[in-house]
């Protein structure tokens, strides 16, 4: 199921709320690597199934933890993306949930088709050394945290927050054109 393993939830709760979400994600994958090793190791297919089922809950719980909200459980009646949105924003209006789900479905497909990016290469290199899938995902998450990879997405979010509203887009573009200190697209 989608419910996050108790040990992973304990790791998330043990880390400071002001910790960077990527640091918590790395630790969460490491907790899964610790859970599924040696005699408890899973075959590759089962590892992939566990990873795919755990990631939405892990990410949602990291978001809620760092936002100071209570952690949530999955709803077995919902699909993959719908469950992720439910675990992230449980009390959100249904219309907004529907819009977010449609956007995330497209985003997830685009990211799945992103080919050989830095984090994918890292996961593959770690896997080629014989590490279990969860250790590989931890190394990939560490790479994704870098400012030249996933950090670029974070920079876009910060830029959008700085712009604030559609009414301020023109003003922001003028600042960029004027080469004002520190203002970039």
From TrEMBL:
UniProt protein name: citrate synthase (unknown stereospecificity)
InterPro entries: Citrate_synth-like_lrg_a-sub (IPR016142), Citrate_synth-like_sm_a-sub (IPR016143), Citrate_synthase (IPR002020), Citrate_synthase_sf (IPR036969)
Lineage: Bacteria, Pseudomonadati, Pseudomonadota, Alphaproteobacteria, Rickettsiales
A Pfam family annotated for this UniProt entry: Citrate_synt
Pathway(s) of this molecule: Carbohydrate metabolism; tricarboxylic acid cycle; isocitrate from oxaloacetate: step 1/2
GO BP field: tricarboxylic acid cycle
Top EC class, one word: transferase
Coiled-coil intervals, chain numbering: none
EC nos: 2.3.3.16
The organism's place on the tree of life at top rank: Bacteria
Signal peptide annotation: none
Gene, per the UniProt record: gltA
Recorded GO MF terms: citrate synthase activity
């Amino acid at each position: 199921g989608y419910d996050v393993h108790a040990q992973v939830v304990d790791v998330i709760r043990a880390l400071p709320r002001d910790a960077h979400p990527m640091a918590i994600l790395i630790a969460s994958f490491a907790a899964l690597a610790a859970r599924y090793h040696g005699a408890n190791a899973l075959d590759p297919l089962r590892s992939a199934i566990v990873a795919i089922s755990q990631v939405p809950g892990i990410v949602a719980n990291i978001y809620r933890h760092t936002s100071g909200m209570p952690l949530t459980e999955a709803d077995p009646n919902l699909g993959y993306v719908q469950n992720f949105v439910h675990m992230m924003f449980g009390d959100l209006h249904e219309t907004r949930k529907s819009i977010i789900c449609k956007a995330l479905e497209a985003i997830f497909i685009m990211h799945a088709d992103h080919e050989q990016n830095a984090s994918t290469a890292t996961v593959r290199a770690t896997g080629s050394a014989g590490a279990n899938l969860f250790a590989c995902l931890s190394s990939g998450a560490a790479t994704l945290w870098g400012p030249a990879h996933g950090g670029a997405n974070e920079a876009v979010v910060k830029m959008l927050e700085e712009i604030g509203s559609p009414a301020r887009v023109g003003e922001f573009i003028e600042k960029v054109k004027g080469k004002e200190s520190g203002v970039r697209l």
